[in-house]
Amino acid sequence: MIHGAMTLLKGISLLLARTELRAVLWRMLALLIVLMLVLGTGVFWLVDYLATLWIPSGDAWYWQILSWLAWAMAFVLAVVCGIVSFVTLGSAVSAPWLDLLAVRTERLSGREVTEQTSPWVPMIMQSLGNSVRPLLGLLLWGAIALAFFWVPPLATAIWTYGAVRFLSFELIDTSASRRGWDYKQRKSRLTEKRWFYLGFAGLATLLMMVPIVNLLVIPAAVVGLSKYLSEDI
Question: How many domains in the chain?
């Protein structure tokens, strides 16, 4: 897990340190900011809605404690929903830029690679298509969490774990697509190095909750994994 987390941190460091990588980041930053603002508004609405459902009524001494717990669980659950939406949509709409980031990162490792020449729309649609099967798995975890909806800590824990697994698929999409990995190969890779990718996606989930830093997570994940996979082969 530590190796996976360090790979993401190295991705952030490399992204900010190298001029050729920062140049790509600036191109996609405005789009990511707009997407973050739109989804952020939805998250705040969802927090209020869930908290209203979970906050107990009464005058008992423990009411205030339960109220704060309900707000905390609602916040985590809503933020995780926002993170999943942001990574899925952000990775799709910025797919051509992410591919360029991967190319430039792999060249830094001494590999001779070529850029994708496909038009933008097919690349975006391919990225969305790659999210379908992992999304079905996430919905399954969501259904399990929903079964424990009235036990907020358990529901939140189940949903968060399912989201981290889903983000593992999402964050490797660019590197996996460049290598021609299908869903079966991606799943096999994630299973083989389960703890690495849980650490990678787990830290990504935490960093997505930090303003400003959250805008760097998607491109940094591509940079970090591209360098890692280039050296791993």
Answer: 1
